[in-house]
Amino acid sequence: MRENYRYLLARIEPPVPMDAKEIFLVISDVYCSLFGEIQASYAWIAVMEYTPPYGIFRCRRGYEHTVEAALSCVTSIRGIPSVIHPFKTSGTIRTIREKINQNKVDIIRTGKVKVNETWISVEINSTDRIDLKEKGINHNMPLYITEEDIEDLYYDE
Q: What is the spatial distance between Cα 55 and Cα 102, in angstroms, rounded to a whole number?
């Protein structure tokens, strides 16, 4: 009988160019330290592909939760402080690749928003999500941007 696999999609931060082998070595080391070498041999972890910032990982069915835990425990890759955020599990690699294409977001326009008498730089992407880009924003101050605020944006041209 054919072995059943699960494919995990994860975002690797920061998205630096690296070899899939380096990522595999880090993940297998973390998995072995968490669950032991015997469980690691049963899980059959593999890095299918890495195109920054996304990585596709393969494991045996039934081990996807432990592999997600190991991915979340990564703290550095090649001496660079890094994190891996798993966010999609599927039975086919095709579904994972479709999810990557959905998550690619294009920045449509940039602008400025006036909040408490200060101008803050923003980027608006194709899904109408607004990202504040100004450094030093007080994170305790609640920021609510409405449709009216979007229409009143001062656009950089």
A: 15
State which amino acid sits at residue 128. Answer: D
Q: What DSSP assignment string belongs to 98-139? A: HHHHHH---EEEEEEEEETTEEEEEEEETT--EEE--TT--T
**According to the model, what pLDDT value does residue 41 have?**
93
| pTM, entire model | 0.65
- The pLDDT of 87-108, averaged and rounded, is 80
Q: Report the alpha-carbon distance of residue 124 to residue 130 in Å, rounded.
A: 5
Tokens standing for residue 34: 């968490």
Q: Please report the pLDDT score of residue 138 as a whole number.
A: 55
Distance (Å, rounded) from C-alpha 89 to C-alpha 87?
A: 7
The pLDDT confidence band at residue 122, using thresholds 50, 70 and 90, is: confident
Cβ neighbours around 57 below 10 Å, total: 28
Q: Which two tokens stand for residue 35?
A: 């669950």
The rounded radius of gyration (Å) of the Cα atoms in the chain is 20
CB atoms inside a 10 Å sphere around CB 67: 25
Distance (Å) of CA 130 to CA 17, 102, 105: 27, 18, 12
